[in-house]
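Make up an example, fold above all:
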Amino acid sequence: MEIKDLKPELIWKCFDEITKVPRPSCHEEQIREYLLKFAEKHDVNVKTDKIGNVVMTKPATPGHENAPTVILQAHMDMVCEKNGDVKHDFFKDPIETYIDGDWVKARGTTLGADNGIGVAAALAVMIDKDLVHGPVEALFTMNEESGLEGAQNVGKDMITGSMLINLDSEDDGEIFVGCAGGIDTIATFHYKRSFTPENFEYMRISVSGLLGGHSGGDIHLGRANANKIIARFIWECSQRWDITVCSFDGGNLRNAIPREACAVFGIHSDHHEELMRALNKYANNIRSEYEGVEPSMKLDIKGCDRPEFCMDSETSITLIRAIYSAPHGVYSMSRDLEGLVETSTNLASVKMVGDDTVVITTAQRSSVESRKMDMAGQVEAHFQLAGADIEHTDGYPGWKPNLNSTIMKISADAYEELFGVKPAIKAIHAGLECGLFLSKYPKLDMVSFGPTMTGVHSPDERLNIPTVEKFWKHLCRVLEKVAAL
């Protein structure tokens, strides 16, 4: 069975089509073209703004023209992550999906259910001829994953609705009414290239098979950070022997916990046997520390040819110290909502750029604006002490819960009517575009909900099939109840 054959047919068929369209963040041209052709094919009104967002509109079912206009919102782009041994061009190749029991998965890559299933749900509403609803607008934003660019720059008069349903949540039975704000802190190291010492032995150390995951939704799970695992071992070596670092490459995306990293470093040839004993001890310690958390972790070290160049000795040790000691993980928990992470930071990626630069990207999140800036300040101060140049992105605001929300009450009632249980009303530590919408349209009444998916932002991403049907039924019932207002 293929996913297009699953039920409800309308939403799964749309999702199947979306998985075939390449849509990396900042490169949404193909998915935008798909949306415009979809609207043309189904005779749906559509418009775009200068930044590249797309809005479709659907008039109310006759007799419900005076109901509040509901905005269905999802983002076009997807996180593009793959396992190191997988050949896949995210700019050209369709996602290769398959069904595994109750789950839809992708072969060695991210699935793109974040937020492809939200896009599919909004499209299905646009073409469902049996649904009873008031006026509906579907807003598809660009570049959510790497900067919320679409939400930050929504064109004037693109949306007119008073209620917004964000379709970018990942847990069935939970309705979200708040989210964290975020900011990125980028540290840049400059180094001098040196010729590698002839009397050194060179090793390539790598870690792979980590779970990774979303740096907001999964940060509290205590998963390993590949960058820190590599840096920790090299630092331990530096405490015993002279080292030189030739390269370091770990992680990819600011909002993904790094799953893989590797580095090439050298020590004096006389210490080879001691190094291998140290590695075996370190590997055993790491596996023990993450037992039950990282079941597929692989730590490997191999000899390699002597590189021509390395970093100067001072930067080598400074960089390793900075990565090893950099803040990462949960900083504080919410005092208002039990179990909610309030503030965190993610040591996301370490990349060598050109012949003399290393760029370290980190991401801070908090539901408290001052704590967000405090965490960014601590990360800045840490890397300043190491001599790095620092810059911050503009960041984005959080979304403060409104527990008197009309659309929240309607959504909760609809879920209980359909499934006989009360949904949980929650806030999420991940960033949603809702905070930006609220800053532009302060009277918007908003909620966020979606089907269950796990492993987002990693090749382990999977979408739960039974909850997609619940998600679709819930969305339709909410629209019907709003139409009755």
